[in-house]
Amino acid sequence: MGWRLAFAGAPDFAATILQRLLESEHEVGLVYTQPERPKGRGRKVSPSPVQVLAESADIDVRTPTGLTAEEEALAGFDYLVVAAYGLLLPDSILDAPRHDCLNVHASLLPRWRGAAPVERAIMAGDAETGVSIMRIEAELDAGPVYRQRSLPLADSATGAGVTDDLASLGADTLLEVLAELPHLGPTPQDDARATYAHKLISADSVIDWSNDAAFIDRQIRALGGRATAYTTAPDGVRVRILEAFPAHPAGDSPPGTLRRDSDGWQVICKRGALGLVTVQLNRGRGTPMPIQSAANGYGQILFDGTILGDANHA
């Protein structure tokens, strides 16, 4: 049986799920997304991926800064499906559709409720993550769960790659749940086991070399595709680290020391070292480049013995 659905979401994660709904037996008649905002280095105002997709499918798109006053519009739909929308739903909206509001959340609830579940799972070194299809209630991500599917987190997992995988897995799981509603009953979450994936802030991108190399490696991988982990060289030059790996330290140096040996370039950490692969400096064209190319081009900044991570410039 096909349902008449409204949808709310914004980024690529949500667009993947919306695309699968459009290809299904269900009818998507209304889409909510975030207003157009400046993006990229040029700060060009651009619509969200969900808006682009919905408009290409000739679906009515609305971009309010809040959903208050949208109750009447939603009353004609069976369910409102939400995926990475970025706005809390007021109580009046939760009661507006004929049945419920459903959320596709990128974690195995009750672990990592909140805004950045993928990044927090990788940073914490979790062995797995997953998706949860839940009924939305007033408390953030605390509603009962209809179904979950897990995804192993490899040692090489990145935030961007995991998000893409979870979008596809979430779409599959959502369609399974929609096929069994309204007869499928959700299971309440165990609030005592809840953890929170707090929103990413600028401080999350700053590398602290007094941490272990394994932690810094997870930080870099988690932020890949959404933000970028960085350190600073002398004179405040920002060095974004795009690819790296935990390594055995080349000698005994203070944390933050850039060293070169026969295996390449690395930064000494509190425990272990971080081997550098690809970096990006806020100098020249600011293009990503192999660490050796960066050292060749900016030898006065990146040399054996450079101290990275000056707190005055973080």
Number of helices: 8
Classified in CATH, the superfamily of the largest domain is: Formyl transferase, N-terminal domain
Q: How many distinct beta strands?
A: 17
- Strand-pairing-aware structural class: alpha/beta
Q: If you compute it from the alpha carbons, what radius of gyration comes out, rounded to the nearest whole angstrom?
A: 22 Å
- The spatial strand order of the largest sheet comes to 5-2-1-6-7-9-10
Q: What is the level-2 CATH architecture name of the largest domain? A: 3-Layer(aba) Sandwich
Overall residue-averaged pLDDT value: 94
Q: Which fold name is given in CATH as the topology of the largest domain? A: Rossmann fold
In the CATH scheme, the class of the largest domain would be Alpha Beta
Shape: elongated
SSE ordering: EHEEEHEHEHEEHEEHEHEEEEEEH
Q: Compute the number of structural domains.
A: 2
End-to-end Cα distance, whole Å, is 55 Å
Strand content: 25-35%
**Largest sheet properties:** 7 strands, mixed
Poorly predicted runs are: none
Assign a percent range to the helix content.
10-25%
Give structural notes.
By secondary structure, this protein is α/β, with parallel strands linked by helices. The chain folds into two domains: about 5-195, Rossmann fold (3-Layer(aba) Sandwich), CATH 3.40.50.170; about 205-295, Methionyl-tRNA Fmet Formyltransferase, Chain A, domain 2 (Roll). About 25% of the residues lie in helices and about 25% in strands. The protein has helices spanning about 10-20, 50-55, 70-75, 90-95, 115-125, 160-180, 215-225, 290-295; strands at about 5-10, 25-30, 35-40, 45, 60, 80-85, 100-105, 115, 130-135, 145-150, 195, 230, 240-245, 260, 265-270, 275-280, 290. A seven-stranded mixed β-sheet has the order 5-2-1-6-7-9-10. Strand 1 (about 5-10), helix 1 (about 10-20) and strand 2 (about 25-30) form a beta-alpha-beta unit. Helix 1 (about 10-20) runs parallel beside helix 6. It is elongated, with a radius of gyration of 22 Å. The chain starts with a strand and ends in a 17-residue tail after the last helix.
